[in-house]
Amino acid sequence: MSTLNQTRVTEFVFLGLTDNLVLEKLFFMAFSITYMLTLLGNTLIIFTTVLTARLHTPMYFFLSNLSFIDICHSSVTVPKMLEGLLLQRKTISFNSCIAQLFFLHLFACAEIFLLTIMAYDRYVAICAPLHYPSVMKMRVCVQLVFALWLGGTVHSLVQTFLTIRLPYCGPNIIDSYFCDVPPVIKLACTDTHLTGILIVSNSGTISLTCFLALVASYTVILVSLHKQSAEGRRKALSTCSAHFLVVVFLFGPCIFIYTRPDTSFSMDKVVSVFYTAVTPLLNPLIYTLRNEEVKCAMKQLRQRQAFP
């Protein structure tokens, strides 16, 4: 163990998205715009929800929490990726790598749990509308949000512990642009087969189980729509389709990455970019452009600012 301690890795080197200088500059411009739009769009949703009294409902309470998580989720990886696109040698300290890994899993897991809660909220609203006010009280919504953050924290602590318990004595090159459990544990100078299985049983099971629960809830909602009026069916389909798009774009990459230990594919970086940089932008795009109530609230806020 003394040898391992003396040669312990103190920093990791990212290979990044590409070694082509032209592509790096193009990626930098594209992802800079994507990140700014992510921050702007999600922040706008949060302020619109907070400042508009009629949006103080469970659905928009969860939506504003989703926007907050998307801001945090993208901020964990995208700034470091943008920095790496400008540098020839892309490095991160060991402690910073572990911190990035922890917060990545915290926000990703919190988003997965929140999307599951939002599906339950829509299920109650559409399938049991008379019981909705008593079932989805604001106090219950706050408790559910607290529970999802607690669950995300426990999950992230488990993932972090599985990573830092391993010895790292070289090599220190990560074939990615951010720190995540699968590429990091590959660098451990010990057998990681058991750790890989534990990762799948944790991240993979959470992603797959929540996704199946979501599919089941939306299936029940779709079956029950025949009881709704034409206008009710239109609103329900519009809301659920927006939710389901976000679900597919987040869960698809997570299931692809975290349900196969000790293997890697050439598509891993593309999939990772999608769920760390692109998916957080989809929330404001999908909800803002498709939701008339949110657009109307934003318009009124603009008028209120122009004519106080």
UniProtKB/TrEMBL annotation:
Q: Identify the main location.
A: membrane
What parts of the sequence cross the membrane? 26-47, 98-120, 140-158, 206-225, 237-258, 270-289
Query: Which protein are we looking at?
Result: Olfactory receptor
The scientific name of the source species is Cavia porcellus (Guinea pig)
The record's family statement is:
Belongs to the G-protein coupled receptor 1 family.
Tell me the GO molecular function terms: copper ion binding; G protein-coupled receptor activity; odorant binding; olfactory receptor activity
Instruction: Classify the source by domain of life.
Output: Eukaryota
Keywords, in A-Z order:
Cell membrane, G-protein coupled receptor, Membrane, Olfaction, Receptor, Sensory transduction, Transducer, Transmembrane, Transmembrane helix
- Under the cellular component aspect of Gene Ontology, which terms does the record hold? plasma membrane
Concerning PROSITE patterns, the annotation shows: G_PROTEIN_RECEP_F1_1 (PS00237), G_PROTEIN_RECEP_F1_2 (PS50262)
- Return the InterPro entries for the record: GPCR_Rhodpsn (IPR000276), GPCR_Rhodpsn_7TM (IPR017452), Olfact_rcpt (IPR000725), Olfactory_Receptors (IPR050427)
Q: Name one Pfam family in it.
A: 7tm_4
Compartment(s) of residence: Cell membrane; Membrane
What range(s) does the G-protein coupled receptors family 1 profile domain occupy?
41-287
State the annotated membrane topology for this chain.
Answer: Multi-pass membrane protein
